[in-house]
Amino acid sequence: MNRPFTGRHMATILIVFFGIVFAVNFLMARLATSTFGGIVVENTYVASQEFNGWLDQAERQRAMGWTATVARDEDNRLAIQLDNAPHHTVVTAEARHPLGQAPNRHLTFSPKGDGRFLSQQALPAGRWIVRITAQSGETVWRIEENVE
């Protein structure tokens, strides 16, 4: 038994189709706003004005020749191997969760000799963005690393 295709059938198809589109869009927008925890920069105009200065600073740091390797130890503390830095360098770090779901953590480091530093605080498991600052006298060197 074949029934004719009517306007009611077409209306049902359109309502179901656009209902699914609306539901998926709503779900995706909800997930996007609930998982992004913050902003990248406070003021994009000011950041654009400072961009060339940041490039100059990065070039000066690169010319210093310092390099860092970051890893976790078995106690979830950060171990940093800082090469080509003076022996009296002081290392600190600020760890932030990439989605802003956990509070930022300030880390201090103890020198272990031969350019090795170990954080005094443990970093909870998961992915973190760690901004490392190494200072020797007036010389300041910064790097940002992803730690998992």
Overview of this protein structure:
This protein has 148 residues and is α+β, with helices and mostly antiparallel strands. It has two domains: 1-35; 51-147, Sandwich (Immunoglobulin-like). It is 34% helix and 36% strand. It has two helices and seven strands; from the N terminus they run H-H-E-E-E-E-E-E-E. The protein has helices at residues 7-35, 44-64; strands at residues 67-72, 77-83, 90-96, 105-113, 116-122, 128-136, 139-147. Strands 1-2-5-4-3-6-7 form a seven-stranded antiparallel β-sheet, with no helix packed on it. Strand 4 (105-113) and strand 5 form a beta hairpin. The radius of gyration is 25 Å and the shape is elongated.
Which tags fit this structure?
Immunoglobulin-like, 148 residues, seven-stranded antiparallel sheet, alpha+beta, 7 strands, 36% strand
What topology emerges from the helices and strands here?
Blueprint: H1 7-35, H2 44-64, E1 67-72, E2 77-83, E3 90-96, E4 105-113, E5 116-122, E6 128-136, E7 139-147
Antiparallel strand pairs: 1-2, 2-5, 3-4, 3-6, 4-5, 6-7
Structural class: alpha+beta
Helix content: 25-40%
**Which band does the percent of strand residues land in?**
35-45%
CATH homologous superfamily label of the largest domain: Immunoglobulins
How many domains? The number is: 2
Count the DSSP helices. Answer: 2
H and E string = HHEEEEEEE
Write the CATH architecture name of the largest domain: Sandwich
Distance between the termini: 63 Å
- The CATH topology assignment of the largest domain is Immunoglobulin-like
Average per-residue pLDDT, rounded, comes to 89
CATH class of the largest domain: Mainly Beta
Numbering strands along the chain, what is their spatial order in the largest sheet?
A: 1-2-5-4-3-6-7
Largest sheet: 7 strands, antiparallel
Q: Give the strand tally.
A: 7
Rounded to an integer in angstroms, the radius of gyration calculated over CA atoms is 25 Å
The 3D shape can be described as elongated
Low-confidence stretches: none
